[in-house]
Amino acid sequence: MSGDIDEALVGLGLRRTVPRLTILNLLGEAATPLSVLDLHRLVTSAYPMVNLSTVYRNVTVMTGYGVLHSIEHGGQTLYGLATTPHHHLICEHCGLLIEVPADRLDPAVAQVMADSGFKMEPTGQLLRGRCRRCRHAVHDAS
Length: 142
Description:
- With about 140 residues, the chain is an alpha+beta fold.
- The protein contains six helices and six strands, in the order ααβααββββαβα.
- The strands form two sheets. It has a three-stranded antiparallel beta sheet with strand order 1-3-2.
C-alpha cells in the first residue's frame, strides 16, 4: 500500500511527510474509519513528537483532496481512505460500522433516482438500522 500512497500524494501535489504517510498507513490497516483522537494516539505511539493539531490538519487537507473521506458517527467525525467508492451501514444500537462496496448498491440507488427524479451523490451514503446481533438481542429479550 505504501507505493500507492506515495503515488497518490505526489500525483495530487501533496508532500510526503512522516505524519501524513503514517496516518494513511494506519487508515489502510484499520478495519473501520478512525477519529482524529484515535489517529493521534496511534501516530504518537511511533512518533511522540507529532501533536494533535498536526494530525487534524493533515486529515483535513487529505479529505479536501479526496484522499480521505469523512463520516459523522456517534458525535464525532471519522476518517477512512477514499480508495474505492463505498457506502456505510451503521447500527443505531451498538454503533457497528460496516463498509459496503458502492457497486453492490449502485443498481438500487440508480433505480430509486430514476423512479423519483431525485439526484443523490453517487457514493458515501449512510444507511442506518440495526445489525444482526442487535436485532437478535431484541428478539431474544422479548
